[in-house]
Design a protein that fits this description.
Elements lengths: L29 H17 L1 H26 L8 H23 L1 H4 L4 H6 L2 H5 L5 H22 L1 H9 L7 H26 L3 H26 L4 E10 L2 H12 L15 E10 L6 H4 L2 H8 L10 H15 L7 E3 L20 H22 L15
Parallel strand pairs: 1-3
Antiparallel strand pairs: 1-2
Length: 390
């Protein structure tokens, strides 16, 4: 009797583990972001150039602050009181710290992607379970933390300005927050150019050009477009009409040498006349995106609390910037007399422009961040010629 042994069953491949995480382009975990950020910060802290940069920053800010404070001590008391010196010194420190921050911050991220690719360290991160968004966000947070370290070093000089008086205490957190957000936007812009450009030198130049466009070119373009937006038009004017001066001339022409009367008093009224009108409502955004305008307009609230008359002067200056968003008023007020019967109602006060400018700058930074995430995806369809992968 023949027995048939069953044929061995075909070996089945082992099932893939079901708990393996699926890493996508936008997979985001705090552990991955922290890992990349820690690597970036540890690399910077170990470098001696980082300590030298912080020391040079502190020395430059201290030297200019002390120089500005020393100059103000020699200003006559009649022209500058103690509060005025405090506000002036606070403005000097704010402009100095923001200006230096806009110069230093682009170097923190403008080579973070293509520099690592050229050194052969980027591919090591890309083949791990780290997602592109974790790599980009980790680099962004590390660069922002480094930029904020320069801001923290400058805190003593802000405190000196506060101690001199004239600057409300609530101004300091507003200035620091706006400056930190602007530095974050610059970090995002540099990260985007670093991922887009093949060479570190090219991404550095493009980042500096973008920052220059926001800080220098924007007011230049505003000034260049101003004549093209200005034209002579018939508008309503509240003031002393021209026929009053003709009546004054006729009055003096009819007076004898021995009989001098009183000329007619000037009276303001509304009349139609030709006046140059500038439509700044079309180009106000060129000023709003400027980082210095954002900090200046956002440092003070829109309403007054009655403290420090010198702060009111600073606020009146920012009101001129805000008025550009409304353009020319419906009735031009040219009345200079004390009698203002029939004066037109004041138009609504122009709201702050810093939220619009800050949102635009942050949007540029977010666009750079998204560009970096998309360029960090693997595999890439095409790579620039001569690009090192690993």
């Amino acid at each position: 009797m023949t027995t048939h042994t069953p044929a061995p069953a075909a070996a089945t491949p082992p099932a893939a583990p079901t708990d393996a995480p699926a890493v996508g382009t936008w997979t985001l975990t705090w552990h991955g972001v922290r890992t990349v950020a820690a690597l970036e910060l540890r690399q910077r802290v170990r470098s001696s150039r980082w300590k030298v940069a912080l020391g040079v920053w502190f020395a430059v800010v201290a030297a200019i602050t002390l120089l500005a404070g020393g100059v103000m001590l020699f200003v006559e008391e009649a022209s500058y009181d103690t509060q005025g010196r405090g506000v002036a010194l606070g403005a000097v420190v704010t402009v100095l710290v923001l200006g230096l921050g806009l110069l230093v911050t682009p170097t923190l991220t403008s080579t973070s992607v293509n520099g690592d690719r050229a050194a052969g360290t980027l591919a090591t991160l890309q083949v791990t379970l780290l997602s592109p968004v974790e790599i980009a966000l980790g680099k962004l947070l590390a660069a922002w933390a480094s930029a904020c370290a320069f801001l923290v070093v400058s805190l003593p000089f802000y405190v000196v300005a506060l101690l001199m008086g004239g600057v409300p205490a609530w101004t300091l957190p507003r200035v620091l927050l706006l400056t930190a957000l602007l530095l974050a936007a610059v970090c995002g812009i540099g990260l985007g150019w670093s991922a887009r450009a093949a060479r570190p030198a090219g991404s550095t130049v493009l980042t500096f050009v973008t920052v220059a466009a926001l800080t220098v070119f924007s007011p230049v373009f505003y000034g260049l477009t101003y004549p093209f937006l200005s034209s002579s038009q018939e508008v309503q004017v509240y003031g002393v009409p021209d026929d009053h001066w003709a009546a004054v001339d006729d009055f003096w022409a009819t007076q004898d040498d021995g009989d001098v009367g009183v000329p007619p008093e000037p009276t303001c009224k509304v009349f139609t006349a030709q006046r140059p009108v500038a439509h700044t409502e079309a180009t106000w955004w060129l000023l709003a995106i400027n980082p210095f305008v954002i900090v200046a307009d956002g440092a003070l609230p829109g309403t007054s609390d009655g403290s420090a008359s010198v702060v009111e002067e600073v606020r009146s200056t920012t009101q001129g910037l805000r008025a550009t968003r409304l353009g020319a008023p419906a009735v031009l007020d040219e009345c200079w007399t004390e009698d203002r019967d029939g004066a037109p109602a004041e138009r609504d006060a122009a709201g702050p422009i810093w939220p619009y400018g800050l949102a635009a700058d942050l949007l540029l930074g977010a666009l750079g961040f998204v560009t970096a995430v998309r360029r960090l995806r693997i595999p890439q369809r095409t790579l620039p010629r001569g690009t090192r992968v690993a």
